[in-house]
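[step 3/7] inverse_fold.run input=structure_tokens len=117
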């Protein structure tokens, strides 16, 4: 069971990397007002959602403690991120504020995962 949990943690980190990496590669374009949500950002957010749900299920099945409030906050942030990226994915230009919000929420999600114990 631990091997499966570690596998999903690795996949979850890859999802975070895809979402945050897509944001960081578009930061220069954001300054010019031409930023857009690249497909990798959508795929990263979906990967985070699927692997996160799997991790919660695996941890609960293995009788590990799961902080449901923390998971709920992270899920709420991810749903907002996923909604924004999904709705705006086909637009050639995304508003700076919306684009920055996705980056901020992604970073907040990472810090909640690491710092909230």
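[step 3/7] decode complete -> sequence:
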């Amino acid at each position: 069971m631990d091997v499966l949990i570690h596998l999903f943690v690795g996949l979850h980190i890859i999802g975070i990397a895809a979402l945050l990496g897509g944001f960081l590669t578009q930061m220069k374009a954001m300054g010019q007002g031409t930023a857009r949500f690249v497909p990798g950002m959508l795929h990263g957010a979906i990967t985070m959602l699927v692997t996160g749900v799997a991790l919660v299920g695996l941890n609960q099945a293995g009788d590990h403690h799961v902080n449901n409030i923390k998971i709920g906050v992270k899920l709420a942030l991810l749903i907002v991120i996923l909604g924004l990226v999904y709705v705006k994915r086909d637009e050639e230009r995304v508003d700076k504020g919306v684009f920055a919000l996705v980056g901020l929420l992604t970073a907040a999600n990472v810090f909640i995962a690491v710092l909230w114990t």
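[step 4/7] annotate
The CA atoms of residues 3 and 26 lie 35 Å apart.
The chain has five helices and no strands.
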